Amino acid sequence: xxxxxxxxxxxxxxxxxxxxxxxxxxxxxxxxxxxxxxxxxxxxxxxxxxxxxxxxxxxxxxxxxxxxxxxxxxxxxxxxxxxxxxxxxxxxxxxxxxxxxxxxxxxxxxxxxxxxxxxxxxxxxxxxxxxxxxxxxxxxxxxxxxxxxxxxxxxxxxxxxxxxxxxxxxxxxxxxxxxxxxxxxxxxxxxxxxxxxxxxxxxxxxxxxxxxxxxxxxxxxxxxxxxxxxxxxxxxxxxxxxxxxxxxxxxxxxxxxxxxxxxxxxxxxxxxxxxxxxxxxxxxxxxxxxxxxxxxxxxxxxxxxxxxxxxxxxxxxxxxxxxxxxxxxxxxxxxxxxxxxxxxxxxxxxxxxxxxxxxxxxxxxxxxxxxxxxxxxxxxxxxxxxxxxxxxxxxxxxxxxxxxxxxxxxxxxxxxxxxxxxxxxxxxxxxxxxxxxxxxxxxxxxxxxxxxxxxxxxxxxxxxxxxxxxxxxxxxxxxxxxxxxxxxxxxxxxxxxxxxxxxxxxxxxxxxxxxxxxxxxxxxxxxxxxxxxxxxxxxxxxxxxxxxxxxxxxxxxxxxxxxxxxxxxxxxxxxxxxxxxxxxxxxxxxxxxxxxxxxxxxxxxxxxxxxxxxxxxxxxxxxxxxxxxxxxxxxxxxxxxxxxxxxxxxxxxxxxxxxxxxxxxxxxxxxxxxxxxxxxxxxxxxxxxxxxxxxxxxxxxxxxxxxxxxxxxxxxxxxxxxxxxxxxxxxxxxxxxxxxxxxxxxxxxxxxxxxxxxxxxx
Length: 762
Fold this sequence. Notes:
- The chain is built from 22 helices and 30 strands.
- It is of the alpha+beta class.
- The protein folds into four domains: 1-116 and 397-517, Immunoglobulin-like (Sandwich), CATH 2.60.40; 124-206 and 215-387, Rossmann fold (3-Layer(aba) Sandwich); 518-620 and 745-761, CATH 1.20.120.730; 621-722, Severin (3-Layer(aba) Sandwich), CATH 3.40.20.
- The strands form six sheets. Strands 2, 4, 8, 17, 19, 20, 22 and 23 form an eight-stranded mixed sheet that branches. Strands 9, 10, 11, 12, 13, 14, 15 and 16 form an eight-stranded mixed sheet that branches. A five-stranded mixed sheet has the order 27-26-28-29-30.
- Strand 22 and strand 23 (491-504) form a beta hairpin.
- It is globular, with a radius of gyration of 28 Å.
- Residues 464-472 have low confidence and may be disordered.
């Protein structure tokens, strides 16, 4: 898979199939969809930033790229996607074979254009803070916000809203004393009501209905400056507000939940930004410490005797608040997308907060999400610090993106699964079958960062149809991904990535298809698709669908004799794929038992925005073994890896586990690591800790670190991820110092035996 990683390092793209079948029938037989996972803002050090705008094809609007055929004598170029002939403009008159513009260099399949003079309004951050939390929690949150305010860029604009029973919009531009406007939490507030109540227009007339007010229209900078100020100007005022911020004063009875109006607060924040800075890069950062019980977006009643909805309740339509709350947040998502604004959620509570309902608004706006047990937990503190960090591990937050896909006439687009929203720009490249956000060739990405990844699904046009629309005789076809966005520096940029792949047909095509199969990318694509189907299709059986897909894939690409199980073998290109599917079936994306709807929504949101390498770790965690007998080495994700004299480091993406074998734990408890003669033991204990720290430092959201011992209660974090090759039902007990897993799940060996048996059947 090294060559696929090299392709990703070149352009930020991984594809399930890097060679495509030449017909729709053959594509269907491939089982795994034709799809690409693309990271638009992946850090690519070799990418040139060109200080001018792109030269576009006059037919399909695709920018000039290395695959274009240039006629240097006639000063023309032929677009590889639509075969349109285009003239080079006068500023390209010096173009020649030995004097190429950067766009035509073969190695520059990805370029960026920074258009001179196009600079955006400074980014805006509105903090929306829940005050219906314990004093201790509020103290942790205030400390984190104080730190964040000091890390904000000086030009960044800041606003501050708090909510509990009511919503308080703080006028931070009023420097004399803390001043705020209060909105009733139990009612939905319209944009006009907010503008009236906040006295935005003063004595001036309002703009007519339908006109968006903002910096350029009805609102003066003075009006906006009451609620949004540059970070450098309002640090003192914000610190004063935080210093005096107290827990929501409304009394809460012992058998009642706090009155928390999360939906109203987010609506007020969205309308405030819509009034002040429409179309400008802005983020609503919501800090939520419990379930919404008041106003629109309510997920549960105030009565503590009523439990918060579970997966079973949602599946059986027994969650009375769920449909209405989801519909409300769908409306909020649409409003935020139209305004170009992002919703980030930091949910920190032992109970559910309504993330399952808010998911649509976070995902469609490309927002960040962090789920932790407390605002004092390292998961929240480290993750929030990373948002504003200006170092090698910064997120590279960008705003106001538009993502477009152009492709050859032989290819159509099903849609995208990922953090974006359809712009409903339908074209000839749209497939009739929709997957995810479809029926468009352009998507809005209100917020995106260096790790944001989209999964684009493609359709192969049948030969008789594609011939009718002008299929080329060449076996080559092309994609172009265009990302127009507001860079962290404030300038507007366009990144253009152009790719070429080829068709194969005929009896010899299987070998070429196999050679182009990327099993890691395919596993991630299947994980995203299975999660999407579980959310969008009623009564969808994900495990059955995955099993049937794997059986069909094995029958198609496996090497075997009919009805002879022992003869079955896979090409190395497919060898690990069944293992990925085995672990995917057992993962938190498919198995929702023992997870709340909020947790499942969180896991799927992260899966849908991460790149292939990170997503693979979520599906099949990595395991490293440390012992005196050998240097640190990868270990099989199997219960057999456990040994009394070993330390195991499990990276499950959301959780990092350091697991000490029984003997190691006894030696550590005896304090041998503190004795000079046992320096080697001290180094052995420290090695996995150093590796875990390196993982924690670079990952967002920060994972939870669990340090545990064999047979301890927290050992479950490791055991739940291991292949149960030895269980309480096994004929043979564990080896000395080993362990067993108390489960009825089948082992990978039994899974493969059944797969081979079904794959070779006539």
